[in-house]
Model the fold of this input.
Amino acid sequence: MIQDLKEEYGDIFEEELINEIVQVGTFKEVQEGYKFMEIGDYIRGMPLLISGVIKILREDEDGDELLLYYLEKGDTCSMTMACCMGDKKSEIRAIAETDAKLIMVPIQKMEEWTGKYKSWRNFVFNSYHVRLNELLSTLDNIAFQKMDERLIGYLKEKARVTKDNIIHSTHQDIAYDLHSSRVVISRLLKKLEEMGKIKLHRNYLEILDL
Amino acid sequence: MIQDLKEEYGDIFEEELINEIVQVGTFKEVQEGYKFMEIGDYIRGMPLLISGVIKILREDEDGDELLLYYLEKGDTCSMTMACCMGDKKSEIRAIAETDAKLIMVPIQKMEEWTGKYKSWRNFVFNSYHVRLNELLSTLDNIAFQKMDERLIGYLKEKARVTKDNIIHSTHQDIAYDLHSSRVVISRLLKKLEEMGKIKLHRNYLEILDL
DNA sequence: ATACCTCTGTAACCAATGTTACTGCGAAGG
DNA sequence: CCTTCGCAGTAACATTGGTTACAGAGGTAT
Done:
């Protein structure tokens, strides 16, 4: 755990802070599909992601889903922080997109450290900042793009975070993430295949040239 | 300026911080329609809003607009903070929705104060938190609601922040904010009028019972 | 092998939204 | 008073995306 932590966070946190994290944090290794957090859950801790990818989803009252963004190594969940501050329930769902390693830090330490360590303060501010921009760009996509463009963006982003040009998803999976319907996604994927941009298979698809 | 500041922020900032703000901040009084910030601008300072309403807009490459949310008294612009941190350009446009009073604080003070004053730190964190949730709810509206629901929400919110049941906007104005077209908005407004929820006039409309 | 189940392809249809075009109204200014 | 201009009403049409329904393909379990 210590070497993992140092490797990923050693450059930005001072020695002393690293030690504190090691003392109070708990190491966690989870598998793809693990649900970290459900909408309405109270938040127990703040995750520091060491490896893997976590996807953050929003859901409305009717159960309709929407992918917000991915967390990658070195990221933390600003939503979590936002919730901690107000001692509120989670507004989002977090699911491991790949196997992942992370350290959970008790939320009480958050405020203590923001006073004590400049590096921690910067880290937290920076996380907020990155997340805010991420949300903005998600908003842009939904507000200004049509489904075909959103689909292409989705495939690219998914390939990027998983470092894999094979997307292991069914059409239905994709439809959920984009808050669309299976038939629509099938239709658009077919067009992309006809254009030679992707190759479709059962349960997965290859990205050729997006 | 001092009494305005104390009135609005006296409860959350300690005396010493208030004094610092008075020393380095510049008081500003602007009229409805004043453009605080344009997309691509570098950010000079951080606004502390004392009275009035500022609307925050997003725009894409094609010039299509979208209202993100309103800032009210006691608010600050997290986007500004986010941009300062990275010394980046603004991602948004900010326009006075009503006449407004505010204090501009040089961005260099931001970091100094986050180390020095706990109240400032909490204020900044809280702003991020509020803005993050605001963005989330904007996202919800766009992703999960149809135009008629969004329109109703828009009218309600606008009436709330301006404390006025008369909405002084043309159909085109509304269409811009919702990123729709004038004809669509006219159509939907007409329906709302037929349902007895609003009363239409030239250049403004009355909210009867939304 | 057979039965079953999930995933994909496709067509036909519908609803919501956006677009174009034209009308008339009313305010403002010469 | 008359002209002009911006705003609102409305119809006709196009496009996008969502829905329903069904067929076939491929994998899995018995």
